[in-house]
């Protein structure tokens, strides 16, 4: 099972039709479309125009998606309600000439803002591509932050190959604990 299949399988049990979700890297729109079918509303970000166009095409007919052509590091400008689940599928747009890729610093900035908007016991699902340029840096920086703050990693998924992608399912620990 690849990471995307794992993520979709897992997410089904985490959200329902009352929930707000945010796709922090819309890309080809696969995750956005998937979340749209399960939740009340989806905000979907991508800094790359081509990705927004592809996602727009993919979600035709869905009336609960708000597409935003901006960096996910600006999520707080656009989202003003509590969120049940954020998904980050890092890296670059597949099958494209685009050289835009996620980077450790902006991913960390976006992650911190996502945490502010996250409901208690909400989830952040994040997939790192260790073989891609900057992928290891992103993985180390974010893992360090996650381990030092109020999160619980409820699941880690990776295929048993060197430098295969890593998915973390992260739950925000409630203040009461
Ligand atoms: C692996 S793709 C995402 C795949 C997507 N989730 C799907 O289901 O098809 C990663 C995407 O992150 C986008 N990206 C890179 N930096 C970004 C940023 N700062 N803010 C938002 N999106 C960014 C890229 O343009 C690319 O489309």
What would your notes on this structure say?
It contains 6 helices and 7 strands, in the order H-E-H-E-H-E-H-E-H-E-H-E-E. It is α/β, with parallel strands linked by helices and 177 residues long. The chain has one domain: Vaccinia Virus protein VP39 (Rossmann fold, 3-Layer(aba) Sandwich). A hairpin with a 7-residue loop joins strand 6 (151-158) and strand 7 (166-172). The protein binds S-adenosylmethionine (SAM).
List keywords for this structure.
177 residues; alpha/beta; Rossmann fold; 6 helices; globular; binds S-adenosylmethionine
Q: Brief overview, please?
A:
With 177 residues, this protein is an alpha/beta fold. It is built from six helices and seven strands; from the N terminus they run αβαβαβαβαβαββ.
